[in-house]
Amino acid sequence: MKRFVPVPTCDGTAAAAVARRAFGVASLDAALGGGLALGRVHEIYAAEADDLAASAGFVMALATSLAGSEGMVLWLRSQRAVRQGGVAQAIGWAELGGAPELGLIGVVRDSMALLRAAVDALRCTALGAVVVEGWGAMRELDLTASRRLALAAEKSGVPLLLLRPDAVPVPSAAQTRWQVAAAPSRALPGHAPGGATFDVTLLRQRSGPCGLDWRLEWDRDRRLFREAPPSGAVVPVPAHRPAAHPASAGGGGGRRAA
Question: Are 166 and 45 a contacting pair, CB within 8 Å?
């Protein structure tokens, strides 16, 4: 019999045994206890205003991974989301390896209608993933509403990705909370554009470690992420200055290893 050893967490809770979907990156999956938990709510925030498209792309890729090759993805948006974020394009989903014919986009009037639709959608076990795109503060999404979403997801086993592109994180019943920023992609032969690349930070996790970050590249063929290789970008250095300044030779300003 395997022995369960509690993992140190940000909020002192113990990890529960739930079905998970691997990201494809060993260190990230280990931090999550084997992958992203299904039947849970996961919040995704944009790091800056310029990262709105990156956060949406990350969610689209993640939903594609969670749903698998045959699962249906339901993306719920408010009318404000359409005005602020633009119209979702099927060709963009296909470029990320998704199947637009297995995607359904629902546009509702306001935040209250959005939350009601989300609870109803989570009751449908035929869905592979539900995405809720909410803009602004969304005062309707208080702790009570968040718990209602979490209970619905847990009961059905359908994961909910809550995309908050222009909001500030507030207390919620989400299992994980992420911050996403755009990152340079690796150039392919012939100067072809590389795969979609994201700087991802795990801000909070109810059942595991947090405060870690990764640079991830999306593999559209495998529908998984991988650690992004160096982009190959060249940074010019003035002729009178050494490439590595003694004061920064220790690399104290680099990204944390995860």
Answer: no
Is residue 160 a contact partner of residue 41, using CB atoms and an 8 Å limit?
Answer: yes
Pairing of strands 41-46, 160-164: parallel
Secondary structure (3-state) at 254: coil
Claim: this prediction has a pTM higher than 0.85: no
Residue 240 has pLDDT above 80, yes or no: no
DSSP string for 71-119: -EEEEEEEHHHHHHH----HHHHHHTT--GGGEEEEEESSHHHHHHHHH
Q: How far is CA 172 from CA 50, 75, 148, 196, 252, in A?
A: 25, 21, 11, 29, 33
Question: pLDDT tens digits, residue range 221-237?
Answer: 889 999 997 655 544 44
Whole-Å CA distances, 247 to 23, 172, 252, 255: 37, 42, 10, 17
Q: What pLDDT score was predicted for residue 227?
A: 94
Residue 150's nearest CA partner among 142, 105, 137 is 142
Tens of pLDDT, residue by residue over 48-97, are 999 999 999 999 999 999 998 788 999 999 988 888 888 777 788 788 88
Comparing 25-39, 87-101, 172-186, the range with the smallest average pLDDT is 87-101
Question: How many other CB atoms are there within 10 angstroms of residue 192's CB atom?
Answer: 7
- Name the residue among 7, 5, 41 with its Cα closest to residue 212: 7
* Confidence (pLDDT) at 68: 85
Could you count the other beta carbons within 10 Å of the beta carbon of residue 4?
Answer: 10
Residue 222 CA to residue 130 CA, distance in Å, equals: 21
Count of C-beta atoms within a 10 Å radius of residue 169: 14
SS (H, E, C) 183-249: CCCCCEHHHECCCCEEEEEEEEECCCCCCEEEEEEEECCCCEEEECCCCCCCCCCCCCCCCCCHHHC
